[in-house]
């Protein structure tokens, strides 16, 4: 998951799945982007958005870990040389 400032050609990509690898770090990021409102009379939508963002990040991170593991083990599983 990358953030890009779309109107600025000089903008760089931010690889969130690489920088936020623990559940606590993801929670801190999401809470900074969508701060909890303690006096909100209907927190459903902000809570749902935070849950969705955490889940999306977790899936991207898992997918990237699976790809990394697959690349590491592929030569051994298929009988190909690692070179």
Overview features:
single chain, 83 residues, mainly alpha, two-stranded antiparallel sheet, 3 helices, 2 strands, extended
Short description:
With 83 residues, the protein is mainly alpha-helical. The chain has helices at 16-19, 23-33, 44-78, and strands at residues 2-3, 14-15.
Structural commentary:
This protein has 83 residues and is mostly helical. Helices cover 60% and strands 5% of the residues. It has helices at 16-19, 23-33, 44-78, and strands spanning 2-3, 14-15. Strands 1-2 form a two-stranded antiparallel ribbon. Helix 2 runs antiparallel to helix 3. The longest helix has 35 residues, at 44-78. It is extended, with a radius of gyration of 18 Å. 4% of the residues are buried. The mean pLDDT is 79.
Describe the protein's topology.
Elements: E1 2-3, E2 14-15, H1 16-19, H2 23-33, H3 44-78
Antiparallel strand pairs: 1-2
Helix pairs in contact: 2-3
Helical proportion?
55-70%
Q: Biggest β-sheet, characterized?
A: 2 strands, antiparallel
SS content category? mainly alpha
Name the strands of the widest sheet in spatial order.
1-2
Please indicate the percent range of residues in DSSP E strands (runs of 2 or more). under 5%
Shape: extended
From the N-terminal CA to the C-terminal CA, the straight-line distance is 30 Å
Order of helices and strands: EEHHH
Runs in which pLDDT lies below 50 for 5 or more consecutive residues are none
Q: Helix count?
A: 3
Using only C-alpha atoms, the radius of gyration works out to: 18 Å
Would you count the extended β strands for me? 2
Which whole number gives the mean pLDDT?
79
């Amino acid at each position: 998951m990358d953030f890009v400032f779309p109107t600025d050609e000089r903008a760089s990509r931010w690889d969130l799945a690489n920088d936020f690898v623990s559940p606590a770090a993801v929670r801190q990021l999401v809470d900074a982007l969508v701060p909890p409102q303690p006096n909100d009379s209907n927190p459903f939508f902000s809570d749902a958005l935070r849950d969705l963002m955490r889940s999306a990040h977790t899936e991207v991170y898992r997918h990237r870990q699976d790809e990394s593991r697959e690349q590491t083990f592929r030569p051994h599983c298929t009988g190909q040389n690692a070179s």
